[in-house]
Each structure stands twice: as C-alpha cells, then as structure tokens.
Amino acid sequence: MYQQIKTMLLLQEAMNSKVNPSWREQGYAWYRAVWVECAELMDHYGWKWWKKQSPDRDQVVLELIDIWHFGLSLYLLKCGTDDESLGRLAEQIGQEFLLDANRSDENFRDDLEAFTEATLSTKDFSIPLFCRLLDGVKLDFDQLFNKYVGKNVLNLFRQDHGYKEGTYNKVWAGREDNEHLVEALVNLDSTRSDFADALYQELKQRYSSHNE
Fold this sequence. Notes:
By secondary structure, the chain is mainly α. The protein has helices spanning about 1-20, 30-45, 55-75, 85-95, 110-120, 125-135, 140-160, 175-185, 195-210, and strands at about 170, 175.
C-alpha cells in the first residue's frame, strides 16, 4: 500500500507541475475544488425526492477519484519533494487508511455532507471521512489506486490536447470523456506493466476518431 500511495503522490506532483511548474507557491484553493466536486458527486448519487433517481455508481466513483486528486495535492503541500519526505508522507496516509474506526454504515448522503462540512471548516482533507465515502460505494484501496492512475492519465491527456488553452473538446460522440474513460478501463488489464501508456493510447484513438 505504501508504495502505491507514493506512486500516486509522484503522479500528482508531476500532473500539478505540468499545469504550473510553480504550483506549490500559488496558494491554490484546493479545498474549494474538493467541495465543488462534492456537489457534483451528490447530483450523480441522487438527492431529489420529487423525481425518480438511482445512483450512477460509475460517475460517483469518478467524482471520488477527482476529489482524491485534490486531496493528494493538499497533502503534498505539507512535505518536500525529496524521496525521504514523500516516503514519510506515504506512510502517514497509509496509516490513516488502515484505521478500522474510520468505517461507517451511515447514509452515504450524510457522510458526504459531513466530509464537505469538514472540508469547508478546515480547508483541509480528511482521509477518515473520505474512507467512509469509499466504503459507501464499496470501493477498496486497490480499486482506488487503479482508477486514480486512469484518471491521472486522462488529466494528462487533456493537458496534452489543449485543456488549459481552452481548445480541448471534452465531449466525444455525444458523451463526456469521463464516460469514455470508464469504458477504456473495463477493456484494459490494470495489472499490465504498460497500463498507463496503453490507456493513454486508447483515449487518443477514441478522441481522434471523433474529433477529426
């Protein structure tokens, strides 16, 4: 687990640095990105009592992965970029994931609101409360890792294709790129050594065929 966490920290550092090499000095409101994603997650899960709604688990999971990106960024700000510092941080995060007391059988919507409230009040990231959300959709740590790597590749793909400049087309053949990512992840073996590269090429092929 600790090595997987360290891998995710390195991927997040690389992604943030690609967007802005000086990201650590910019004072970005990462906590704000977290709570806005929480609102989007609630819409995918469903909360309206005046219409029939069923949780869209795939999209709920993707929103959780987005939230985890921002959470990792907040944690990265608390340590240096050297290998020893990242190793200590990975151990700290891993220990928080392993706390059985974090688990909850409460209503998912209530857990989401508790996590959002904590985010707003502390402007920080609570792994114990985040774990409740993972449990609420039956997403274990290995699945979190695999899906994080997948979304990280999508974020990299977006940046390489004009996301920051505003020229990237997020909708392919009438569906958002997140939906294409879900399909691509199903069709690829996440244990293969070139998983990240293969996923990037799959997204590239899909994007090119619908945006020529």
